[in-house]
Design brief:
Number of helices: 7
Helix content: over 70%
Shape: rod-shaped
Length: 263
């Protein structure tokens, strides 16, 4: 574009020079001075150029003379077209730049939005995983506590059942012992007369029962001592069934001999 402006200026300078020379030749300068010529040229609508423009025009004239290239001025229509082209080019460039800027902004915004969505999704995934782990841990803990509670309950129930069974067995054993003692007491008839006591030994009675009957009859002072005596001598296995009359005041040996039918 600068070359076109230079060419246009050069053409205008050449035209001005030609006009001045023509006027000077026709009038033989007519007594006009240089200042008057310049003033006359301005009256005709010519524009004076500064020294730099004239110097540039002179250089371009010399170049044209040396190269043989005839430089013609650019008319206003051509200049207008060139200006319009430049304006269109600038407008297109501005528009393209604006579009590129908007596109870049939109791309940046889209990228930021995508990163934000990914970050949000990752955070939600992390929170969901932590929640799942916490829920599984809670369920496992509740299950463990339930199992321990169940085991303790079963153990307590088993202990109570065992104690109940033992208590029942003890009660039954005690009742059986009492029933046996009552039966033995009923079967063992003890009669005390003048100077003697009658002792009856029934089938199945042990030496301890016989010793208690002897104590009841007043034959011995301690059933336990008399039973121990019978066991130490081996008489507890030799007692015979029957009814015996034993003198009061008899010693352990005499009583044992009578109960074994040795006398």
């Amino acid at each position: 574009m600068k070359l076109k402006y230079y060419l246009r200026g050069l053409g205008i300078g050449i035209l001005l020079a030609a006009a001045i020379l023509t006027i000077s030749r026709r009038s033989g300068n007519g007594g006009l001075t240089n200042d008057e010529v310049i003033a006359r040229a301005q009256d005709l609508g010519m524009v004076m150029q500064d020294n730099s423009t004239l110097a540039q025009n002179a250089v371009e004239s010399q170049v044209a003379a040396e190269t043989g290239v005839i430089i013609t001025p650019i008319d206003k229509a051509e200049e207008s077209k060139e200006t319009e082209k430049v304006s269109e080019t600038v407008t297109e460039t501005v528009q393209e730049t604006a579009v590129e800027t908007v596109s870049a902004e939109e791309s940046k915004a889209a990228e930021e939005s995508r990163l934000a969505e990914e970050s949000k999704a990752a955070e939600e995934s992390r929170l969901a995983e932590e929640s799942r782990i916490a829920e599984e841990s809670r369920i496992a803990e509740e299950s463990r506590l339930a199992e321990e509670s169940k085991a303790l309950e079963e153990s307590r129930a088993a202990e109570e059942s065992r104690l109940a069974e033992e208590s029942k067995a003890a009660e039954e054993s005690k009742a059986a012992e009492e029933s046996k003692a009552a039966e033995e007491s009923k079967q063992s008839e003890v009669t005390v007369g003048d100077g003697s006591a009658s002792i009856t030994i029934s089938s199945g009675q042990g030496s301890d029962t016989v010793a208690r009957n002897c104590e009841k009859a007043g034959l011995v002072s301690s059933a336990k001592e008399f039973d121990d005596y019978l066991c130490s001598k081996g008489y507890d296995r030799k007692l015979a069934n029957g009814t015996y009359s034993i003198p009061l005041g008899s010693d352990y040996e005499t009583i044992a001999m009578i109960l074994m039918k040795r006398r």
